[in-house]
Amino acid sequence: MPTTAPTGPAPGLAAYADVTTSDATLRRFLHGLPGVDQVGAEARAAALGTRSIKTTAKAWALDLAIRMVDLTTLEGQDTPGKVRALASKALRPDPADPSCPSVAAVCVYGDLVGDVKAIVGDAVNVAAVATAFPSGRASMEVKLADTRDAVANGADEIDMVIDRGAFLAGRYLQVFDEIVATREACARADGSHAHLKVIFETGELQTYDNVRRASWLAMLAGADFIKTSTGKVQPAATLPVTLVMLEAVRDFREATGVQIGVKPAGGIRTTKDAIKYLVMVNEIAGDDWLDPDWFRFGASTLLNDLLMQRTKMTTGRYSGPDYFTLD
Amino acid sequence: MAFEYAPAPESRSIVDIKPSYGLFIDGEFVDGRGTSFKTINPATEETLAEVAEASEADVDLAVKAARRAFRGWSRMSGKERAKYLFRIARILQERGRELAVLESIDNGKPIKESRDVDVPIVAAHFFYYAGWADKLDYAGLGPNPQPLGVAGQVIPWNFPLLMLAWKIAPALACGNTVVLKPAETTPLTALLFAEICQQADLPPGVVNIVTGAGSTGQAVVGHPDVDKVAFTGSTDVGKAIARAVAGTDKKVTLELGGKAANIVFDDAPIDQAVEGIVGGIFFNQGHVCCAGSRLLVQESVADEVLSRLKRRMGTLRVGDPLDKNTDIGAINSAEQLARIRELSDIGESEGAERWAPPCDLPSSGFWFPPTIFTGVTQAHRIAREEVFGPVLSVLTFRTPAEAVEKANNTPYGLSAGVWTEKGSRILHMASQLRAGVVWANTFNKFDPASPFGGYKESGYGREGGRQGLAAYLKGADL
């Protein structure tokens, strides 16, 4: 995963510099993006969901999906013991099968980063939620302090939330500035920066037009990843929302040359669902995104279902849940 | 790293194709007196079955059987007729997978379409008209409406079972009996439907299926004891039928060709519009009378729409119709493939620019890649003639008025599509376009409750909805 900060904005991105000079220009730009027809977008997502992924294709997809998991626990009751267990699981999801890959990252609250790091070292990334997760309701100083704290604790990736209130009130430049400031707060002393994922909480933005606008806004502000949800609001990730975001990163790369990752999070619990997402990545954004550097699943229970399916593929038999670790 | 989808073929074992099929007359399968013919799988050219050809005498027997059955069927209460139709609808659903697989084998269409589009709409059509059977008095078509008698119905090969449903369901609901001729290249699902009629204990003679080619169709249409002719197919044959029945008291509905404009404005939801363009022309290999075969795109977004369209076409999967991941199946016949090739070559020689994504086509069977022509003008033959294949002509326009003018500048008028986020523009366009169906921000959507039919050379009469009843009742012209 690239963790060094680019030396300056990509040449393609420079063309968009004047878009973010004022609230008015940013608003004009975001509202000038082509609309999303809800019925059409949902029909397209549903149609891709009927792809039939079997045998070798399924085996390939299962391993890829495991490698894309951001194994997550974001509870008030999280303890060092809990996150250490999760970290061990992230390293060796299936202790019985050494060929099983590790997951992409462990995602926890900022104060628990060190506990995870102690187990996983550099083998698996540690992601921390920050900026007054999950509501984002705090002053900018608090949000930035939250971010710096997580980075100082050793987080490789920061999952920030946008201020949905500001977005829905049309104060797009405020949201933009917050992302820019948070990205600066992700900087480390050695010049590198923690990878920034920007959470929209699409269940609160509600319309696909808003999802498309938020995607462009975050990408222009320097997000490395755009992420659907905190997991605390229903609906969390859905196929059509992710479809709109995949279209956005595809179009953004075409326009600027800069590739941005996508992370649906929350509500993805089964292998069947995970494979639908991978099909969508493949057919909407393209193969370049079929990599843990560019696509992640924010999930917890998904992993065991993937492992169960993986064991089924290799042994030909389904085993019960007791054969997989609960962490 | 590329995501290669492994083959995911739907099993053929659910269908039992017999080596030979007779005609379905008076509730029984009987031998035909014509020269039997073969039906093949267009994806492999393998012979599927030998099918009887109905001679004029066979058609006469079928019409006589239908006439005998008409006495009982037309006097039966609507509630009782509805029971049969509901039963047929349920059996269609129960045997849905079998019908879908058989349709894909005989027609060449991808299983995902026969499974998710054709068969569900077929069952829905029977359910819908079953519901009307005991409510005809309240259809707004006059008091105590009466059936016409025997309906002679001739259907095409592009949606074999669906067109059968569009014809038979309203006819039976209104108390008519039918003699139906399926297309010669796709008779198998109609013959399976005949078995379903037996399974449903439908009284003998209410539905008769006579297989054959053009001469059988002529015999059905021209039979003096046929009261109603319903045809779906080409405009040329439609005109011949109109001539044949002129001067008789037969009632006629014709659903013929089309050259629909799919109009994309600069304020359209572009990604969904691209999807609609793809679905509009490549659905069912473009073998769709209402296909959006002329893309009219506003010049200010033409480049963007075209580049997105080409990228999207690159992801279309052409191949084995029974593979669940196939998007585009086989062309239905060698004859149709030759016609598509001929018109495409003409397009090229007239100066339009041809483009198709790279795709490997199977070595046997009939295949044509999804193709677009750019730089097409109203003067090109590919912009005027119905190709009936996966071939899209792209034209541009500058203003809404020009879009309307170009869209209407065709001898056809079956359907049109409008893509814009502006609601008022949709309503304005719908009032200006001379087409039987105008889809807004979608395309190729069918529902039994929605009437379907054409303007101008696309035919007359409406099928579907309450309007579809009028075609099968006396004095009930809408």
Automatic annotation (TrEMBL), chain B:
<dbReference type="Pfam" id="PF00171">
    <property type="entry name" value="Aldedh"/>
</dbReference>
<dbReference type="InterPro" id="IPR016161">
    <property type="entry name" value="Ald_DH/histidinol_DH"/>
</dbReference>
<dbReference type="InterPro" id="IPR016162">
    <property type="entry name" value="Ald_DH_N"/>
</dbReference>
<dbReference type="InterPro" id="IPR016163">
    <property type="entry name" value="Ald_DH_C"/>
</dbReference>
<comment type="similarity">
    <text>Belongs to the aldehyde dehydrogenase family.</text>
</comment>
<protein>
    <submittedName>
        <fullName>Aldehyde dehydrogenase</fullName>
        <ecNumber>1.2.1.3</ecNumber>
    </submittedName>
</protein>
<dbReference type="InterPro" id="IPR015590">
    <property type="entry name" value="Aldehyde_DH_dom"/>
</dbReference>
<keyword id="KW-0560">Oxidoreductase</keyword>
<dbReference type="InterPro" id="IPR029510">
    <property type="entry name" value="Ald_DH_CS_GLU"/>
</dbReference>
<dbReference type="GO" id="GO:0004029">
    <property type="term" value="F:aldehyde dehydrogenase (NAD+) activity"/>
</dbReference>
